[in-house]
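Table 4 source record.
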Amino acid sequence: MKNQKMAYFYAICAVLVWSTVASAFKISLKYLNFLQLLLISTFVSTAILLVLLIAQNKLKNLKKYTLKDFIHSALLGFLNPFLYYILLFKAYSLLPAQEAQPLNYTWPIMLTLLSIPILKQKVSIKSIISIVISFIGVLIISTQGNLLNISFTNLNGALLAISTAVIWAFFWIYNTKDKRDEITKLFLNFAFGFIYIFIATIIFSKIETPDLNGLLGASYIGLFEMGITFVIWSKALQLSTSTAKVSKFIYLVPFLSLVIVYFILGEKILISTIVGLVFIVVGIVLEQINKSKIH
């Protein structure tokens, strides 16, 4: 029971932190372009993961890895953090936070769709219904509730936000097949990702000393969105008697995020955003129930 209470504590801490990152993205993008923001935040997260490896005496794991392992990490690093966060930060630069965050949150539904061709999983009627419910939510948010005369408020931003869900689903599928130590392989992913981002920033932007606001924002994202919160969440999963007991807390993130967006960014939260988000979460929950019954 003591371990379960600690699991809940870690899970709630992770959820509270993740609920702040949508606002952190928007604030930081006022001072840095999306490539500069990603460069600094990835550097911070890579450094944090390196410190964790050293503290846990896991740096020696790198010596055991083969060339194939490093190539695998290089490919995963291209998906996340490189491609995933480039698309995500660009989406946030085009959309209000209240639209970008829920659209990005559709990744569990994308995971189900991609599992059909990649993992050869069969899709049930209940899963199809779940997917349709979530995508109705996507349309409600993207059109601000104007479903009778569909007109996207920012089609490019919406497509970018949804594409991040696809990229994350791809990453999740291939990352779970990799049975190496989580922190070690995550460090390698970010180390390779930082190299890609550094090159992209030199070519498409410029490297310059950010002002204090930009530096603090990027560091916050690197520390909490990409780095240490992952370890906190992993700790919650390890201590819990079952994954389901702590996983349910993740559904609080988009709703808490809207509250923080309202108070921190001053965005007026639209009814269409709340309704659309409810559709998305209901679809995801139904899909998770379907999976638990199958397994």
